[in-house]
## 1
Amino acid sequence: MFAVIFHWWLGALLTIVGIALTVGVVGGYVKKVVAPQYPGKRHKRDDCPAHGDQRVTEPTVAGSARSPCTDLLARCTFPAPGTTVSCAVSGGADSTALLALAVAAGLTVTAIHVDHGLRTGSTAEAQVVRGNAERLGAAFRAERVHIVDGPNLEARARDARYSMLPPDVLTGHTADDQAETVLVNLLRGGATSGLAGMRPGHRHPLLSLRRRETIALCATLQLAVVHDPSNLDPRHLRNRVRHELLPLMDDLAQRDTVAVLARQAGLARDDDELLDTLAA
């Protein structure tokens, strides 16, 4: 028993120290070198449209979601075919791919879109989601919440959104989101459970997929995709992690750090579950 606990603490300590050192070096570089409000040159990721771009790519060809989805489905964690599920669909590539893959997995799907009413054109985004749901053979439900812009907007919008969704709703979080979550939790002082990120399973069936794959799937299926300009707002920590910190970490490490962080999340999750078992 002592050996097991010692092994866990040693692994956890090395993991936390390694990530902390990386973030410390990168954070200093970002503060001094990268423009903090994005107006000039910045690192761009392949899913990042021009600032303020609210274009919606309209579908032109209808077709089955099953054939292009086959390889991706093998890496997803959807429940058994025939299960009735709800999918949170904002209209972005990740949640739209979630909708297509859930249908392809043989589930009975309802797409739920929550309009926060924070920007002009948000009502049209709900219609884009409705159109995709109809094309794919899924049901659709629209909800609306009232959020006022101001401090802590990201957290308030998330809480309001989830208050309108069923507790077992499926989300389109990918491995990229997992890596961002690990870093955000670390920067906020998260312990082992925070470094474990999101738990894989039915609620997060796309955690083994990459964001570039969801974008490619939507393009292949010619599904409409909404580009939310708030994903570029530097007021939100996650956006800065996505557009500044992660690209810089890739450059420093000369490798894909999303894959590294997603793997570390799995190791931290195993350690966290072991601790829970030992404490029971």
## 2
Amino acid sequence: MKFKDFFVIGTDTDVGKTYVSTLLYKALRKYNFQYYKPIQSGCFSKDGKLTAPDVDFLTKFVGIDYDDSMVTYTLKEEVSPHLASEMEGTTIEIENVKRHYKDLKKKYSNILVEGAGGLYVPLIRDKFYIYDLIKLFNLPVVLVCGTKVGAINHTMLTLNALDTMGIKLHGLVFNNYKGQFFEDDNIKVILELSKVKNYLIIKNGQKEISNEEIEKFYVLYLSSSNEVIKFEENSVGTLDRSSVYPREIYKKIINLNAKSIILAHNHPSDNITPSKCDI
């Protein structure tokens, strides 16, 4: 199966970026996905070393051992990474982050990268920001946004910034939804203004993302008499897309001696309008 890496950011601090990243990782881990937090501030001491709280939360939630390979830089002060590194005398080398990411790519099929806060969070003062890291990795963004008062403004500002920077949007995740009438209206306004068709709503206390909430691509291989030779789940994506490689499908057509195929995929958002990619 083929997947794509993606980068998770939030519209603001404490919007639930780590929680959403954890649910996505939990759903995709069986496909050899790995979680990666390049830089973590606000770390705490445990067994004589600094522990990244986001990695600690994710591993405990999923039920696996703490994994040092999920983070490159651990900083103690609970402030922006650029300031924490200055206070602690730690020099953040982006090449180390880049190398770590490449090493993970050799071991895992795909990487879910979680940033620190929003687009403009500085990693190195006056030099390097979260948006620079996204561009360096050349990854599409999963934007985690809230549903409370203020969500419209925060979300639209971030979406406009992504568009201006030329960073692709992979999908929206409305987190911590509690079923309030104003939340429904906030979501409606954001979707109408942004024209985003692919999104996911995470309810308050939700513990997992079901298979129906992740896009999948299927292929049916048919004989000359239109009988099904083989039905396969060709690829699994994330919120709004799945990667399809025609060459692999063509090979399977030849190997199975199929005379025709049927292609299908779901829309996790329940929006049945075909996207540009569909057409």
## 3
Amino acid sequence: MIKKLYDFRQVSVPAPLMQAEVTRQDLDAELALAAARFTQIVAVFDPIENGDVVALEYADEKGNHRLYANVGKGFDDVENLLPGLSAGDKLQIRYAGKDVEATVASVKRPTVPALTDDHVQQLGIEDVANIAQFEDYLFAKLAEGQRKRKFRGIMGIVSKALLENTQFEDLLQHPWYLALHEVMMGRVAGFAAQNGLSVEEALPAALRMEGKSLEDCRQALVDMCLERAKQAALGKAFADEKGVVLTADDTADLVGQYVDYLNEAVYEYFAAQITVERK
């Protein structure tokens, strides 16, 4: 499928794509998410605020009753009367079609504790036993995320260079291209059936090429399938270099696996070169 493979390692990538950073703010946000896992609902006696769970008690001819309000959730009008009140305060409410005097029986508030080494240990992360180690773990996790975000731009440049500079055989009759084209035409036919259109009428809409000629749309479909077949051929070339053989029952699935392998091979090379600064 490939006559001569282009060496993508000689591609020049803009410096900004090779640099990233993880800030103190990024780490603090992750620490806050971890602390939130240990949230406790505790009784408070200060004024009610949004987010509190309030128990109200009232009595009528049928006996004593208790109802609960999640303040700030917008479930009922009673919530609007509660902010600023405290446990023990009384208020007039309308409930079940009656005006009654109720008492704030209790106020409970979700409380996020300060993260401790004990909390970190409860997370069960291997080789992470204290906050300092947890921050290092989070930095590594965030750094990997930054590398993957940068890689999207890098892969666009590298893929373009590979497709333009690799010498391919004619793939228009290759089973991979034919399978991809069949899949795409099947999707267009499905779109046509759902919308009461002929395949020719549906093709521009399915490709988001409204206003273009049918000939242009057909050529765009060919180019799309051909490019993906070439990407798969590149992935197979890199897999062959490492003695990796991929298999799948469906040809289109196999193509997808080799395209993924192409991305993995390029990522493996560039990821280690992307510097992530801890600020």
## 4
Amino acid sequence: MERKGVCMKIGIYGGTFNPPHLGHLEAARTAVKVLELDKLILIPAAVPPHKALPEGTPEGPPRLAMTERMADALSMPKVAEVSRMELDREGKSYTADTLRAIRAQYPDAQLWLLMGTDMFLTLHLWHDPEVITQLAGICAFGRTEQDGEEPQREFLSQKYQAQIVTITLPGLVDVSSTRLRELLARGEGQEYLLPQVYGYILMNRLYGTHADLKRLELPELRACSYSMIRAKRVPHVMGVEEEAVRLVAAAVRRGRVGIADPGRPMGSFLFLGPTGVGK
């Protein structure tokens, strides 16, 4: 919501989000805080102009769904939103076209384009860089101060009169999307992802994952369950799980407890008690 007497500040964070990981999440959260954004728009690209989508990349809808889960995990329902404008637009996903569309929708807002340092260092090579820098300020973030960052800042400021803010995030997740996709294909890499995003990947068998959804380990089962609910419900689900464990433990201490055994015929039970397991 626009603050009285102050123009709305809108952050635009685009990318392939292939997949969205914890680095994207932390960068988005920090940008909202540092720039004091009123709105953050996450925009998955359909056809990125600067690189071809790698083989095996999910179509737009799955990447949109994963980005929506990341936005939900920010826990900023009045600030963060996901737009499918580039997925719906034909042709390459030019940032200049996206900014024009957002400017038309919010003519009086202050726009900030968010990007990583690697993108910032090549911004002058993008399609219509003069339009981009005219329509929006540039916010670049990275893990460390880059050697080429200051010369690029000076170049863009002088040539395009660009307004630039740089944010250093020393603890930013150190993994590229390419590396993460390779890890996922080997059954690894979940530590770089939100559980709900990882669960969505498993349930839809993206990035070469082949999880047996009927025989998941507990962490994978949790991730899949979290992918189907809103982030604000996760603490409740975790609480229910912990309470169930507590009740079973208490029952075991009091005596023998019967539980269904999936490895035995229907109607068979294992009995848990102070002395161990029996039929």
